[in-house]
Amino acid sequence: MRAHYIVLLAAALVAVTGAAGDDHLGTRLLRTHKSTTSANEEERVNFAGFEIKIGLLDDIIERMNQSPMFKAQVDKRASAQDAYTAFKVDKVADNVFESAQWKEWAEYVRLMAKNKNEVPDENLAAGMSAVLTSAGLSNLLANTAKNDKTRDIVSKLEAAQLSRWLNGGYTPDAIFNTLALEKADDIFGTAPFATWTKFLTQYNKKHPKKMVSELDVLTSSYGEQKFIKMLSSADKSHPDVSQKLRDELVKGWMDDVMHPSSLFTRLKLHEAGDDLLTSPLLTTWVQYMQAFNEKYPKFKTTMIQTFTKSYDDQQIAVMIQAAKKSTNGRMVDFATNLQTAQFKQWMADKKTPTEMLSVLKLTSQTFTDNPAADIWRAYNKAYVKKFPSGEFAFQP
Hints:
This protein has helices at residues 2-17, 24-27, 54-66, 68-76, 80-86, 100-115, 120-132, 134-144, 151-167, 172-178, 191-206, 214-222, 224-234, 239-255, 260-266, 282-295, 303-310, 313-323, 329-348, 353-359, 372-386, and strands spanning 44-47, 50-53. By secondary structure, it is mainly α. Helix 7 crosses helix 8 (134-144). The termini are far apart. Residues 1-19 form the signal peptide. This is RxLR effector protein.
């Protein structure tokens, strides 16, 4: 009965391909005999150079009956990537998953995968990644996920992509690079980043003893300073994500028990110059300083104390005064509070207004057009208020 079934299949195939003159194809549909066969093992026939399960042969005949291209791809043993072009899937302008081109290509890839005992959907994901790049596939899936007609396909392909990475033994660092995230400046909210975080979650579930943190991958990929700048850029667009990662970063620093002045140097804030107060690194450093002061009150420090280890009083005062003229209201408030803190520090150091004239490099010749004059006047006023019976320095 089985032999008769094979003969019928061979005859059907010859009928399908006879118009093309491919008479020799029928003779290649030869039964593969084995001396011993397991009860659960499917018998195979030889088709176009492939040993194909008998259960799949009907699918081949049906698809070849629909499109000569199908037979051509089988004959050439075309890769998924080459077949993608052959079926003209790359020419589809709209939702690719709704196109006849993609559906035919997908059937071809699935059929070849089944014959090789591979996972069909994983081969689809691999094939599309080869054509579009992994990042490109992530973007495509994200853009088509809202379409009710293709939502199931999108879900299956995304799951297959994650599965093949996990089964392939890839690490979170490797997939981060595969998705080209290490080259991006703004990753939060992007489809590739969302794909990567899903992979990271599944990876950690599979490897509970070798768990990898999101923070470790990000800092190792970008470097500490660039990563902190990225957090600062994301504060408005993705505040929850940026603050979560910043909190984790600060916690890691706290575990190292590093003094804020050491971190200030590590982040190269001592080299920021006039851009110190607007540095995207400063907010994160301030958060660490506050956490450090709370945990180690005996070793607490202030921004002004730390700044003056790298910059002189005049430099800091001028930077603060310039920031007070910013159009950003929050910066103005920050600078105003910082100036108050600096004045208190000067008073604690018993620096009189007269002494501050030389510190601020003010003379009778330069007082009128020197921007530091406004700083001196403000300090002189604060000093007199604090010490009403003390020294009063008149404007030169």
